[in-house]
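Journal club prep, notes for RB
We'll compare a predicted complex against what the paper describes. Inputs for the fe (ii) ion case:
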Amino acid sequence: MIKYVSCGEIPANKHVAVEGSVKGKILREELISTRGFSGIFSTKYHVHIPSGYSNLKVLQRPLIKLNDNIPKQYYHLLTNQLQVRGNFIENRVLLFQNDDVSISTIKITENYEKLFKNASQNELYFIHKGQGLIRTDYGNLKFKEGDYVVIPKSTIYQFHFELENNLETKIFLVENNEPYMIPKRFRNEFGQLNEVAPYCERDFQVPKYDDVIMEGDAEIIVKTGEVLTSYHLNNHPFDVVGWDGYLYPFTFHIDKFKPIVGKIHLPPPVHVFLENSSSVVCNFVPRLFDWHDNAIPAPYYHSNVDSDEVIYYAKGDFMSRKGISEGSVTLHPMGLPHGPQPGKQEESIGKKETVEYAIMVDTFRSLMSSNYIKDITDQDYSNSWSV
Ligand SMILES: [Fe+2]
C-alpha cells in the first residue's frame, strides 16, 4: 500500500517447491489477494498448511439496532461516558454505520488471548489512549498514544495493551469495506510519495519479526459484519517464516503528519490523510493559522452536500466548536450547513496557532446511528447555533 516490503525469509522464486527449516517439509505459500487477484497482494510462507480448522461455533452477541431514519440534526456524543468495559472485540461500541463504514469507540480493560480476524472490513484504529504491541501473521508492531494502527481485511492478529497500573486505553475505530489508501495526488507517476504529500514513506512503521511459532494450534474469532464465529485452527497461523508484497498492517503516528497551511483559510482536503471511494480520513493537528491581515482562521460555513462529517476530538481546544471535550464525537450530516458556533469566528481572529488534535471521517453515504448513542448524546448541541 505504501511501498514494497519484504520481511523474514522468502524463497528466490514464487510458486515452486522450497524446503523450509523443517527437513523434508516444503514451505506452504499463501497469496493474500485483493480485488480478485487484480489489487495489491502479499505472499506468505508458512511452515504448515494454513487452511485446516474445526469446531466452528457462532457466538451470541447483543443485537445492535440501527436507526435508519436518523433526523437531520447536529449530534455531539460524549463517548467517555460509556460505561462498557472489556476486550477490544466484544467491547467495540458502534456509533454510526452505513453500507460502507462502521464507526466505533472502544475502551479496553482486558486483553484477549484468542486470535482475531476481521473477514469483511479493513480496520483503522486511532489509539487515543494506551500503548502496547500488536502481534500479526505479518510480524509485530508496537503502538502508543497518537498512533494509527491500520489493519487490512483478513489479517490475523492479537492486541496486547499495557493495562498495568490502570493505564487508560481508548480507541476510535473506523471499519471499511475497502482499504484506506494514500491519495493519488500524493504520489508521482512511479508511485513514490511526492514532495507535496504531508508525510513520506519513512513515517510509516511496518511489521517486524520477533518470533515465529513453528508448532501448535490456536483459537481464532472471525468477525463477518456483526457476526462473530469461533474456529479451532489445526496449525498456528503465526508460523510464517517470511512474506513480501504491498499488503500488510502498519502504524503511523499523528505527529508525523505535516499540516499544510495558507495565507487564507484552506479547505478540508489539505487535512486528508487516507481515502477510498466511500470516505476520507483527515487529521487536524497543531498548526500555524492563516497570516492574511484580515484572515478568519475558523472555517467558513459550508454545505458539503455529499458527505456526512464525523469528528473525534482527541486533545486540545478545538478552535471552531464550543462544549467539546476529549473523547467527544460530532456528526454533521449532509443536508445541513455547518461551521463555527456563534462567536467562534470572531474569537479566532488574530490567533496565531491551534494545538488541537482531531480525526475527521467524511462518509459519502448517510450514516445510521446505533442504539448506543441514546444515553451519551448532548441534547443541547443541536441548538447551540441558535442565537
Ligand atoms: Fe465541515
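Talking point for the session: Residues 302, 304, 309, 338 surround fe (ii) ion (CB under 6 Å).
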